[in-house]
Every structure is written in C-alpha cells, then in structure tokens.
Amino acid sequence: MRVLVIDPDLARAALVAEGLVGVHPLEVRQAALFDEAEVARFSPDVVVIASDSPDRDTLESLREAGHSNTRPVVMFVDRSEPGLAEQAVRAGVAAYIVDGLAPSRVRSILDVAISRFALTQQLRGDLAKAKADLESRKVVDRAKGLLMKERGLDEDGAYRLLRKLAMDRGKPIGVIAADLLAFAGILRGDAS
User: Fold this and answer.
1) Which domains does the chain have, with CATH numbers?
2) Is the distance from CB of 93 to CB of 75 less than 8 angstroms?
3) What is the C-alpha to C-alpha distance for residues 153 and 23, in angstroms, rounded to an integer?
C-alpha cells in the first residue's frame, strides 16, 4: 500500500505510519502541504491529510485534483467547524475524522475509506453509463420517428431497420441513429 501523508506536524504524521505497521508492502511518504504534482508523482493508493483544522485552500485543491487524480482521501482533523465536514466530502474526502487520530484506528479507517471510495467510483461509473444509455435511447427514438415519418414504417419496422444498419456496419445502434439524424439535418439544411 502506498500512502501519502499530508501534514506539517511530523509527530502527527508519524502516528499514521505507526498505525500501518504490519501492512506489507507499505510505502509511506510525508509532505507538509497538499501538492497535486507530488500526488501524481507518488501515485498513492490513499492520501491522508492530518491537520489542526481543514483550510479552504486544501479543500479547493482537493476538489480540483479530484477531477483528474481520483484516489481515496482520508482527513484527520483535531477540530472542525460547522459545514466543513460537508465541504470536505464534496471535495472528495472519503472519510472525515474529527479528534480521532489514534494509531490503533488508522488501518481500519483507511480500509473503510478505500472500500467506500471504490463503491462511490463504481456508482459514478454506473450513473454515467445510465445517462449515456438514456441519451442513446433518446437518439434512437428520434431516429425511429424520422424513419416512421419519411419511410412510412411502424415503430417496430423503424427499429428493425436501425438494428439491421447497425449490424451491417458493425456499429452500436445509437451511433447509427445519431448519424441518421445528422444526415437528415444536413439534407434539411440545418448545418451551415
């Protein structure tokens, strides 16, 4: 396991490493500040941020890094203000622990955060696929409508024609439907 500990306090950072004794293989690096370039270079399995209280710059950096550098982030803070936990979670923090950095708890917290992060990533992927499938279905329905109008087909006949075109060309039916709609638009003069 590769762990990047972001903490200016070396003693507090050492508590994280102490909590991971017995994990093999293990590589722990410590940095004083969150640096997206350092995270990318080290490519840790998990990032642990420990601090007195989370600052808005760190949360903003996490939010920006989360789009391109997705990995679980665990945040241990000594104290928190109302709303900061929610901001941290929105920034991509998988676990936000207030006044709970004890070596005996570190490994279980990281394990849960890594599992939770993997589940969240899977759910995001499933959501993106569902949105793409829905969009493809809308395109197919519009293409069927065009075929029904222009060729005098019923809905089933229009779908069969789209499916045959897709199989003949070795492309997904959504791609064929999008192409059909694009060409129809060109013929109508919609494209400049």
Assistant:
1) 2-101 (3.40.50.2300), 130-188 (1.10.10.10)
2) yes
3) 65
User: Phi/psi of residue 52, each to 5°?
Assistant: -65, -50
Q: Which of 4-13, 17-26, 72-81, 125-134 has the highest mean pLDDT?
A: 125-134
Contact yes or no for 72/89 (Cβ under 8 A)? no
Q: Specify the residue for token string 């990281």.
A: 110
Residue from 78, 88, 33 nearest 56 by CA: 88
For residue 37, pLDDT beyond 70: yes
Torsion sign (Cα): 115, 119, 125, 128: negative
Whether omega for the bond prior to residue 172 falls within 30 degrees of 0, making it cis, is no
Look at residue 41 in the predicted model and tell me its pLDDT. Answer: 87
pLDDT tens per residue across span 140-183: 999 999 999 999 999 999 999 999 999 999 999 999 999 999 99
Q: Higher model confidence: residue 69 or residue 91?
A: 91
Residue 117 CB neighbours (<10 A) = 21
Phi, psi of 153 (to 5 degrees): -90, 155
Structure tokens, 2: 């590769």
Amino acid of residue 22 = G
